[in-house]
């Protein structure tokens, strides 16, 4: 099962690259896009927590705009609540380590896809980028509580990707990018 999931994730990444680029183009230093160019040696706990929180803000902003545009449809209606929980899990870590909270620019940087099918593709692409970011972070030397939160967030992103994939198939597409 894990092999199938890894294969699906890799295929999704390849198919969704075109949809990640517009989000990254809005601000190359925000969220997962902001740490892509950093080497592992440049990753600090503060940079990782900032990127994680910004990415969760961005996902919430994207999904909120999608709901405003296309209505309160699944999976966005469910996943936006999960994004709120993800943000809530990260906030105490900023206080614990005395890091300044990054600004929430999620709504400002959110893009509005032309169709609901493109919204599903955008959601999948965001989750693929999220998964890659958390997998990378979990390879670092982290405090136990941070590692635990990043593990929860990784698991959540994997579930969200599966939801976007299921919903896209339900629309008769069969795959995320056509």
Explained architecture:
With 178 residues, the chain is mostly helical. It is 71% helix and 0% strand. The protein has six helices and no strands. The model is unreliable at 3-25 and 172-178 (pLDDT under 50).
Summary, kept brief:
The protein has 6 helices and no strands. The protein has helices at 2-26, 45-70, 76-96, 106-109, 116-138, 144-170.
Output the keywords.
178 residues, disordered C terminus, 6 helices, mainly alpha, globular
Strand content: under 5%
Largest sheet: none
Q: How would you state the average pLDDT, rounded?
A: 81
| Alpha-beta classification | mainly alpha
CA radius of gyration = 15 Å
Number of helices: 6
Number of strands: 0
The rough form would be described as globular
Instruction: Report the oligomer.
Output: single chain
Task: Report how far apart the termini are.
Answer: 25 Å
Q: List low-pLDDT spans.
A: 3-25, 172-178
> Can you give the helix content as a percent range?
over 70%
Query: What is the H-and-E element order?
Result: HHHHHH
Would you spell out the secondary-structure blueprint of this structure?
Blueprint: H1 2-26, H2 45-70, H3 76-96, H4 106-109, H5 116-138, H6 144-170
């Amino acid at each position: 099962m894990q092999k199938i999931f890894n294969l699906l994730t890799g295929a999704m990444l390849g198919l969704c690259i075109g949809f990640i680029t517009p989000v990254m183009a809005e601000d190359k230093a925000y969220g997962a896009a902001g740490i892509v160019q950093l080497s592992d040696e440049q990753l600090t706990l503060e940079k990782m927590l900032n990127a994680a929180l910004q990415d969760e803000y961005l996902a919430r902003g994207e999904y909120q705009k999608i709901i405003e545009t296309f209505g309160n449809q699944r999976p966005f209606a469910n996943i936006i609540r999960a994004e709120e929980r993800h943000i809530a899990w990260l906030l105490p870590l900023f206080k614990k380590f005395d890091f300044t909270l990054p600004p929430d620019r999620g709504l400002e940087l959110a893009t509005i896809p032309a169709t609901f099918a493109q919204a599903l593709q955008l959601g999948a692409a965001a989750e693929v980028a999220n998964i890659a970011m958390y997998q990378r972070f979990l390879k670092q030397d982290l405090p136990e509580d941070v590692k635990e939160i990043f593990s929860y967030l990784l698991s959540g992103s994997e579930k969200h990707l599966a939801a976007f994939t299921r919903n896209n198939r339900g629309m008769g597409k069969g795959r995320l990018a056509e």
